[in-house]
C-alpha cells in the first residue's frame, strides 16, 4: 500500500513531508534500478533515491565492456537490459559516428549474431535504456540529489529501520529498505556489521586473500594465479627521487613500509580509477589537456618504466597493448571503454584507503584527486617529451567524447569504486564458494567471473626497486551460487534491509562477484525477497526459501 503522509516537520528552518513507501531503494546504481523495476512489477510502491545526478552507476559511467565470465549465468532483468541494448543498436539512427556493419566488439563480450543480447555499449545508450525501463513502470518514484544523513539519519525501532532522513531534511519511511550503493552507506549508518580491506587467508580458509606480493600463488584447487606478474613494473625501476639515493626520499605514491607477509590481512583496498570513454573521431573528440596544478614528478615512475627497458620498449610486456599502458576496448560509434593495464596506468594505487568511511566532502576531494591524476596521466602519455614518440603518436589521437557526459571535459562523474565496505552476515561468500568447495543452497543468482583484485599498494622490494602488490587473477570453477543469506544482515542486527552490492563476502570472493550484471541480478533478487517479506508480514530472514526460489525462477533468474 502506497501512502504519502503530509506530516510537517521542522528541519533547519524548513518544513518537510514524511513520505511512506513499500520499498525504498537507496542508490540509483544498476542494482538499484533492477530492484526498483522488480518491486514495481510485484505491485509494490517503490522509491528509488539517487544521491547524485545520474543513474546507472558504472554501467552508465564508462564500464561499457561488460565483465561477465559466463553469459549464460545472467538472467532476469539483467539479461533484459542487455536485450534492450541490442534493440537500441538495431536502430540505424543510433549509429552516428560509424556504420553499424563496421563495428565489432571483442573479448569475452563478443556478440554472436544469434544472440538476443548485446554486451558492449556506450554509457549514453545504457542511460537511455535504463530511463526507458523505469518510465515503463507505473509504481516507481525517482528522486535525485538526495544524500543520506549518515550521522543521524537512520531511525530504528524493534530491529527494523523505521525511516531515513536525507541531508535536505526529507524523511522517507518504508517497510523494506535496499542499500544499492557501492559504498554501503545505508548499511553502515544502520549499524550493520561490515568489513574493510583484506582478510587473512586463515580467517576463512582461503589462499588468495590478504597480501599477495609473490609472483605466483595457488588457488585451493591448485590453479595458478599470476599475481605480481601482471600490471607491474618491469625490472630495475628506481623508486627514489634521486636515482640510487634512498636519502633523497621516495617518489610519490610509494608506500614507506614493506607490503607485509603474504596471506596476512590488512585494511587496504584495491585501487580505483575512472573508466574513461575515449574516441579518435576528430569531430567528437576533446583532446587531452594538462590539468591545473600538474606535477611532473607524479609521473616519474612512468618515465622510468619506459627508460628501464633492456629490450625495445614495445617488447617490455608480453601481454596487452605493446606500447600503451591501457586496455582500450571497442564500444560502438568509434568509442572505447578504457581501463588500467601494466605497472603505471589509470589505477591510482594506494590513494583511496580513506574513501569508504570518509565524509561526502572528503570523498569528493578523493574523487577529484583521482581525476586530476588520470587527466595528468593521459596528457603525459600524449604529449610529454620523455614518453617515446610512438606512444605519443598513438595516445594524442585520442580524447574524451563530446556527446557522452554532462561535463564539458567529457569526464564521467562516477569513480570506479571497485570495493568499499562488505557486510558480514550469517553467511560470508568466500574463495571456497568460488571454487565450488562450498555450495550455497539458497541461491539468489550466479557469479562467474574470475577471482580478481587490482593492485592495493606500491612499495620497494628487497632489491631496491619499485613494485605493485595486490593483483590476483584466477579462474573460478564455473558459475557458482550466491547465498540469499549473504545479501541480508544477521537477524540480530536488522530484519528489513537488503544489501545486493556490498554483500557479505571476503575480499577475494567479492572480486569475482563484483560485476555489474551480477549486481543487477542481486538487485532483482533482493526486491523479490522484499516483496515476499511484505506479503508474508515477516522478517527478511524468515522468507521461506522455497517460495523465494519459485519466484526467482518465475522472473527468469538463473540459479544453477
Describe this structure in words.
This protein has 560 residues and is an alpha+beta fold. Among the domains are: 3-191 and 515-554, FAD/NAD(P)-binding domain; 276-401, no CATH class. The chain contains twelve helices and 23 strands. The chain has helices at 30-41, 76-89, 123-135, 185-189, 201-204, 300-307, 360-383, 389-395, 431-434, 507-513, 516-536, 545-554; strands spanning 3-11, 14-26, 46-50, 140-144, 154-157, 160-165, 171-179, 194-195, 216-218, 224-226, 276-279, 285-287, 326-331, 335-340, 399-401, 422-423, 443-447, 451-453, 457-460, 466-469, 472-474, 480-483, 497-498. The strands form seven sheets. Strands 1, 2, 3, 4, 5, 6, 7 and 23 form an eight-stranded mixed beta sheet that branches. Strands 12-15-11-14-13 form a five-stranded antiparallel beta sheet, with no helix packed on it. It has a two-stranded antiparallel sheet with strand order 8-16. Helix 2 (76-89) crosses helix 3, helix 2 (76-89) crosses helix 11 and helix 7 packs across helix 8 (389-395). 51% of the residues are buried. Mean pLDDT is 95; it is low at 1-14.
